[in-house]
Amino acid sequence: MEWSQRQMRLAEELLEKAKEFGADLAGLVSVEDLKDGPPEKLFPIMKDHARDHFAEQITTGLSHGAVKWEPEEKTVLVYAVGHPKEKPELDWWCGEINPPGNKLLAQISGKLKRYIEEHYPDIQVYPKPYHVEKGGIYLKDAAVAAGLGCIGRNNLLVTPEYGTRVRLRAIAVSELLPPSEKRDFDPCQGCARPCASACPKQAFSQTIYTEPETGLSCLPAREGDYYRKQCALEMEENEATAPLELVPEYSDEPMPVIRYCRACEFSCRYTGSKEQ
């Protein structure tokens, strides 16, 4: 497809603005490519997904795992913010208060939306929440398609710059823009895979999905041996056992502080060219 000068300039401009507003990485991918991606094909046949605790939070009116796309959405801008090991609090939930990392990601979306609406009023903007059940998209796979990195054997996005230690968010726009190039990057080759043994719930201990069974060659953790249900059990345990702590900036009373498991993330030996 041939792209106009306007489309190419706009794509470059939006990627630059995403970084100016706080993103460390950013890329573009077409909505049509994401609609045809592995997650949207796999989720309906995933084992036990109907009992996932996120199923209780559906606000899209669609079935669990289905992505809600607006007809006007043409391109998705995916962006990442680095999450250093030394700043775990970026991802901590203090009671029901949104973690600082989530707030930062939402602020970037808001700034991008305001910028586009001010300078390109003919373009509609759709900030995407985190959960698919609430109108979000499959962020890791969108990030791969947008050139940010690859899906590792730990079933996480692995980026050349920051390894697995990133947090993702996205916006969609009603303008068709040139997609970013995918990267030829794979740090998992030859790795002993410490991420698998680090999992406290052994979520990588058995083959769950196969290509003959699913008709897909792109499977969770590449070889179909990531079991989402086991990971969800660990998250639920993290929530149930969250200690009560005093967090003065939020409350005068102790509140539960949820620290979700990051064992597979921290055990990854590839920490990126910009090791944090």
In short:
With 276 residues, the chain is of the alpha+beta class.
Brief descriptors of the model:
single chain; 276 residues; 4-stranded antiparallel sheet; 9 helices; 9 strands; 29% helix; globular
Q: Topology, please?
A:
Layout: H1 5-20, E1 25-30, H2 31-35, H3 38-42, E2 75-82, E3 93-94, H4 100-119, E4 125-128, H5 139-145, E5 150-151, E6 157-158, E7 166-173, H6 194-198, H7 211-214, H8 228-240, E8 244-245, E9 255-258, H9 263-267
Antiparallel strand pairs: 1-2, 2-7, 3-9, 4-7, 5-6, 8-9
Oligomer: single chain
Beta-strand residue percentage: 5-15%
Low-pLDDT runs of 5+ residues are none
The total number of structural domains is: 1
pLDDT averaged over residues: 93
Q: Percent of residues in helical segments?
A: 25-40%
- What strand order characterises the main sheet? 1-2-7-4
Distance between the termini: 38 Å
Q: What structural category arises from helix and sheet content? A: alpha+beta
| SSE pattern | HEHHEEHEHEEEHHHEEH
Find the count of extended strands (DSSP E, 2+ residues): 9
